[in-house]
Amino acid sequence: MISSFCAKLDMQESEDNCLSGDEKAFLTVAEREFSNFGEILEEARSRRISVGAFLSGAPLSLNTIPVRSSAQFYVKKHTSSQLPYVHSHDFYEIIYVSRGKCVQRLADNKRLALQQGQCVIVCPQAVHSLERCRAGDIILKMVIPQELFAQCGGQSVDGIASGVVLPLGNIPADAVFSILKLFECQGRVSQNVIRGYLTVLFSELSRRAKPCATEEEVRAYLLGHMRGATLGGYAAFKGYSANYLSRLIKRDTGKSFSELLALCRMECAQRLLAEGDMPVEDISREVGYDNPSGFYKAFFRQYGLTPAQYRAAVFKT
């Protein structure tokens, strides 16, 4: 399996490298790959953007987001000649890092980095781009049409939803085996065999340790990032999308991220008021309030006392 795996990697690298220098071949593949190819071409021509500009890797800002489309299952290496571009697709895509690292940019320009042994499911309609891979990286991209995904139990994976980019972290050994086997045997086995491996893969992914967000873990992050803590920042730190992490926190703690942040800020302020003579305005900035009046209101709402009254009560006792 190892020799055929490496041979297939090398073959795909060679094929993509040849394509990157051939404008006519590039257009043929693009027409086949993008369901809205006509719109893309029309905008490019109206703005005098050449095929050469696409192939050069120069940053291009198109109003039309390319939509990849496929009715066929396949697994392909993210080759070194593939350039980053923002796109979406009408199929599910599983991206697995066999070696090295994979960096994605999501719709809100947040960065999602996958390390060796980790994978992500990119659902239909999600918008993302993959940064160019480095020498030695082995990143596999599995394209699964929606019907095949449903037939093989893909919906059993927790967190699957249209438009979602779902990081799964490190995945079980049997799931890795299924991915590598599908890459190695595609084109040589029947659809039933492919369905079998995909069913095993989704079964393993659905049984993986469910991601959790304990209140203790969230609080530890907040205490270390009190001044500038945001859900987006925490999501980037964890490697999840902000929407997914928000649901996870609510599910596992019973509180929203903003509720936990407010609680941590008040508890920290409470401690600072009781431990010394730091001015109240300095405390408000320390716990993340740019406007002292907002801090005063939040503190009174939480404790029924102003910060000054609370400090006086503490020192009185």
From TrEMBL:
Keywords of the record: DNA-binding, Transcription, Transcription regulation
Keyword Ligase included in the entry's annotation: no
Residue intervals of the HTH araC/xylS-type domain: 216-313
SUPFAM superfamilies found in the cross-reference section: Homeodomain-like, Regulatory protein AraC
One Gene Ontology MF term: DNA-binding transcription factor activity
Transmembrane domains' residue ranges: none
Descriptive protein name: Helix-turn-helix domain-containing protein
Classification via InterPro entries: AraC-bd (IPR003313), Homeodomain-like_sf (IPR009057), HTH-like (IPR037923), HTH_AraC (IPR018060), RmlC-like_jellyroll (IPR014710), Tscrpt_reg_AraC-type_HTH (IPR020449)
PROSITE patterns: HTH_ARAC_FAMILY_2 (PS01124)
Keyword Ribosomal protein in record: no
Gene3D superfamilies hit by this protein: Homeodomain-like, Jelly Rolls
Pfam families named in the record: AraC_binding, HTH_18
Organism: Candidatus Coproplasma avicola
